[in-house]
Write a structure and sequence with these properties.
Number of strands: 6
Structural class: alpha+beta
Helix content: 25-40%
Number of domains: 2
Strand order of the largest sheet: 1-2
Number of helices: 5
Strand content: 15-25%
CATH class of the largest domain: Alpha Beta
Largest sheet: 2 strands, parallel
Distance between the termini: 19 Å
Oligomer: single chain
CATH topology of the largest domain: FAD/NAD(P)-binding domain
Order of helices and strands: EHEEEHHEEHH
CATH superfamily of the largest domain: FAD/NAD(P)-binding domain
């Protein structure tokens, strides 16, 4: 019987990334997924009208889009397209108002009024530090030993 070297449960971004890293060493990997389609929280489907594709689970994947690992893969050749709307999310309040988070820190803070400075400090520092942070997310201590 042809046994796999590794079994990955779940075909979301993390499971697929783990399976890819292991397979790149020449090991045999099998991925199990309970849903009829792969992708975990990044799946999409035509849920209402033909041709109108909905996000099934979550719509914002900032760490995936900025992932050094995912940039090493030819995902665009398989149809991946990162869509980045100007308004990333909105939160309605009971009073009928809302807060909107835009891709632009300046545009977001212009609408936040008394919370603008706190948002600028928090998010601005992350944006500034992102290139160094992204490199630290790459797990350098994980080594998969190729089969002998």
């Amino acid at each position: 019987m042809n046994q796999p070297d590794a079994v990955v449960v779940g075909s979301g971004p993390n499971g697929l990334a783990a399976a890819i890293v292991i397979a790149q060493t020449g090991r045999k990997v099998i991925v199990f997924e309970a849903e009829p389609t792969i992708g975990g929280g990044v799946r999409s489907a035509e849920l209402t009208l033909p041709g109108f594709v909905h996000d099934v689970c979550s719509a914002v994947h900032p760490l995936a889009a900025g992932s050094p690992f995912f940039r090493t893969l030819p995902l665009e050749s398989y149809g991946l397209e990162w869509v980045e709307p100007p308004a990333m999310l909105a939160h309605p309040f009971d009073a009928g108002t809302s807060a909107v988070i835009y891709r632009s820190i300046q545009r977001t803070t212009a609408e936040l009024e008394h919370d603008a400075a706190a948002y600028r400090r928090l998010v601005g520092s992350i944006v500034t530090a992102w290139p160094a942070m992204a490199q630290r997310f790459v797990v350098k201590s994980m080594k998969v030993v190729p089969p002998s």
